[in-house]
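During the second half of the funding period, the structural biology subgroup turned its attention to how the target accommodates small molecules. The most pressing case was nicotinamide-adenine-dinucleotide, which had performed well in the primary screen but for which no bound structure existed. We therefore specified the complex as follows and requested a full 3D prediction, including the ligand pose.
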Amino acid sequence: MDLSNKIVVVTGGANGIGAAMCRRFAAAGAARVVVSDVDFSAAEKVANEIGGLAIACDVAVEQDVVRLVESTVAECGAIDVFCSNAGITVKGGLESSNEDWQRMWDVNVMSRMFAARAVVPHMLKQGSGYLVHTASGAGLLTEIGSASYSVTKHADVALAEWLSVCYGRQGIDVSCVCPLGVQTDFLDDDDPIHRYLHLHAITPEEVAESVIQGMKQKSFLILPHPQVAEFFSMKADDHDRWLRGMQRLRQKLTRAKKRDAA
Ligand SMILES: NC(=O)c1ccc[n+]([C@@H]2O[C@H](COP(=O)([O-])OP(=O)(O)OC[C@H]3O[C@@H](n4cnc5c(N)ncnc54)[C@H](O)[C@@H]3O)[C@@H](O)[C@H]2O)c1
């Protein structure tokens, strides 16, 4: 898709990957970029910088997402691209609380369903539209340090696939962005697993560039780290071998964590 003259909404647009996407979409000639975030004042800063429109929205709350879609259509006349980007992470495995699991589910998964439910009817009426989900490499592979992140990002990939299957023939394109480490507030330098992700971390601007290129080709999977394609194919070829490799990596990183703690 060519972004010129398009109306684009980005959730989680105030920081990190979302802010870089807003700037890149504006540079690509989008008619209007709606910078949406739960942090309204930070969203306003990005919107002011690019001549966009800031709209407050907590993506975990369906009424907020409906209001975001309705206000954008009322103000801008259409939505051509909706980027479900806002996401959170909580470290931990089985010990993570049910409240944390629920929050992860709401922000990382239900938010995307609320957005699709609100925006797809507009796109069907227009006869075209583009849904972009920022999932993660963890949605195709795994995130050793967070069970809830791995599960919710897999669910996001599954939802994006389902949307593509069901609406792809009705003019709605879907892309799923699956980076490994990206240099944003997400990565915690004190954690060995995050330090490992940092080794190959790229900038949010590199992710945004990859999104623009992927959207041009209408690729379902947008992989800013090309090695994800290789790892994903290794996993599909021999799941047991892939799991053994990940078990070895986890052992190595857990030992590093214990050394840090000592
Ligand atoms: N940074 C990474 O290493 C990395 C890697 C792969 C995927 N991702 C994914 O990229 C997306 C963006 O992450 P980022 O690294 O830019 O993080 P970030 O923390 O820099 O930015 C996330 C933005 O989302 C907003 N946000 C959080 N909860 C929200 C909510 N309930 N409603 C609306 N906005 C909310 C925050 O205010 C923030 O502005 C996430 O979905 C994340 O899972 C990040």
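Two results from this model are relevant to the next phase. The chain is about 55% helix and 15% strand. The beta strands are 7-11, 32-37, 53-56, 81-84, 129-134, 172-177, 221-222.
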